[in-house]
Amino acid sequence: MSMTLETQPDLGRFVDPPRLGNVLVTGGSSGLGAAVAAAVGAAGGVPVIFDLAPDTSVDAPAYSVDVSDRRAVEDAVEHAVAQVGRLDAVVTAAGIDRCGRLDEIPGDEWDRVIAVNLLGTVNLVRAALPHLEQVHGRVVTVASTLALRGVSDATAYCASKFGILGFSRALAAETAGRVGVTTLIPGGMSTSFFDGRTEQYKPGPDTHLNDPRDVARAVVFALSQPQGCEVRELLICPDTEGSWP
C-alpha cells in the first residue's frame, strides 16, 4: 500500500538523536558498566564512573564509591555534578552475587547482595533525581532475567533483581513526564561476574553468553530516544542462552 505525503511519518526528529550528555555509570570500571561507559563515550557522551576501584587509566571522571553507602553516594553525586556541570542520565550497573542455598550463605554476605544490587540502585537514583528532573534526564536500572523467574541457590540475587524491577516500574509511574526510566533485563554476559565461583555455579563450556558491548549498545539506544518517547523495559539475551524464559 502506497503512502500519500499527508500520511508519511515525520522521521526528521530521528535523524539526529539527542546528545547523551553526562551519564553516570555505577560499576563503571568492569563488566557491563565498563562497556556502557565506553559506549557512551563512543556515542559522544561523557561517562562519569562510580566504582569501588575505579580505573584511573580511563579518560573520564571517576570516583571511588561504595554504592551501598547512601551518604557516600549522595556526596559523590554532588561532587560529580560540581565537576561536570550537570547530570543527564544514570545507569546502575554495579552488582554482585553470592551463590548457594539460603541456609549455607552467611547472613552478612546475603545482606551485602541486597545492599549493593537493590539499595545501591535506590541510593544512586535518589541522589541523582533532583539533577535529572532539572533536564528531563533518564535512568537505566539493570535488572536481570532472574528478575523474571526464581532459581535455586540464588535467593539473594533473585530477591535483589526482583526488587529492582519492582522499584523501576514504580519509579517510572512516579516520575512520568519528568524523568525517563528504562529497566534493562540482560541475560548472561561474558564478564568477570562469574570469576571466583565454584565450578557448579559457573557457565558450562557450551553456554552462549552475550558480549557486554552488545548489551551496552542497547543501553545507548534507550538513552538516545527523543524526549517523550521511552523504552520502559528492554530484555536482551543470547539467542540460545537458557536464563530466559
List the helices and strands and how they pair.
Elements (H helix, E strand, L loop, with lengths): L11 H4 L6 E5 L4 H12 L3 E6 L10 E3 L5 H15 L4 E4 L14 H28 L3 E5 L12 H20 L5 E7 L25 H12 L9 E4 L9
Parallel strand pairs: 1-2, 1-4, 2-3, 4-5, 5-6, 6-7
CATH topology assignment: Rossmann fold
> Which structural class should the secondary elements be placed in?
alpha/beta
Percent helix, as a range, is 25-40%
**Quaternary class:** single chain
Question: What is the helix/strand order?
Answer: HEHEEHEHEHEHE
Spans with pLDDT under 50 lasting ≥5 residues?
Answer: none
The residue-averaged pLDDT reads: 92
Number of strands: 7
The CATH homologous superfamily name equals NAD(P)-binding Rossmann-like Domain
Number of domains: 1
Percent of residues in beta strands = 5-15%
Shape: globular
Looking across the biggest beta sheet, what order are the strands in? 3-2-1-4-5-6-7
Cα-atom radius of gyration: 18 Å
Distance between the termini: 37 Å
Largest sheet: 7 strands, parallel
CATH architecture: 3-Layer(aba) Sandwich
Describe the structure.
- The protein has helices spanning 12-15, 31-42, 70-84, 107-134, 155-174, 212-223, and strands at residues 22-26, 46-51, 62-64, 89-92, 138-142, 180-186, 233-236.
- By secondary structure, the chain is an alpha/beta fold.
- It has one domain (18-236): 3-Layer(aba) Sandwich (Rossmann fold).
- Strands 3-2-1-4-5-6-7 form a seven-stranded parallel beta sheet, sandwiched between helices.
- It starts with 11 loop residues before the first helix and ends in a 9-residue tail after the last strand.
